[in-house]
Amino acid sequence: MSKANGFLSVYAGLLTVLLLGGLAYGAGKRAITTDEITVQRINIVEPDGTPRLIISNHAKLPGVLVHGKEKPLDRPQAGLIFLNDEGSEIGGLIFGGRKDKDGKVRDSGGSLSFDRYEANQVVQLLGVDDSEDRFAGLAISDSPSGNDVRRRIWLGRGDDGEASLALLDGAGNKRIVMKVAENGESSISVLDAKGKTVKELLP
């Protein structure tokens, strides 16, 4: 091989390396536009790698994330997990539904929730319609710490078709309940801490 041919080979190889390096660098920096993407999970992270949003199918939906570390939890749904600036779960949107081998509907419904810092959900919009439960509504709760949840307000529909608004005290006891049954019967009840009705307004 002549010196000229050897120089051209080296030059061509160097250009190839630079071109591939530039493409790899550009792929990491430039925006990609496409009509459709099919994946099982997408992790949205900060520049330092802190997770902020996870979009996942059921198989890859993570357990509870605390400071970026996962604590195992089997969730029979797919959805979105929201995380705060520290990589800890702060709420999510989950949904699912299936039939078991006996033909019973399992885990059918969805939930949108927002959590208190390093505690459980304080706002939850949910609907469930399976073989065990049928209800839909909005729940407002206190969550002093950890998994401790004390419901304060419930506005929704129950399995019996009754629409209700319940106001609860700090211990989770119903104190005022407004109801309208499916047949139109209505009432407003005031209860004591033990759940006994002390005053009731009927039509």
Helix content: 10-25%
DSSP strand count: 14
Query: Main sheet, how many strands, which sense, barrel?
Result: 12 strands, antiparallel
Helix-strand string: HEEEEEEEEEEEEEE
Structural class: mainly beta
How many angstroms separate the termini? 105 Å
Across the major sheet, the strand order is 1-2-5-6-7-8-9-10-11-12-13-14
- Rounded mean pLDDT score: 87
Radius of gyration based on Cα positions:
27 Å
Weakly predicted, low-confidence segments: none
| Beta-strand content estimate | over 45%
- Shape descriptor: elongated
Separate helix tally: 1
How would you describe what is shown here?
It is a single chain. It contains 1 helix and 14 strands; from the N terminus they run αββββββββββββββ. The protein has one helix at residues 3-29, and strands spanning 41-45, 51-56, 64-66, 69-71, 78-83, 89-99, 105-115, 121-129, 134-142, 150-157, 163-168, 174-180, 186-191, 197-201. The protein starts with a helix and ends with a strand. The longest helix has 27 residues, at 3-29. The model has no long low-confidence stretch (mean pLDDT 87). The chain is mainly beta and 203 residues long. The strands form 2 sheets. A 12-stranded antiparallel sheet has the order 1-2-5-6-7-8-9-10-11-12-13-14, with no helix packed on it. It has a two-stranded antiparallel sheet with strand order 3-4.
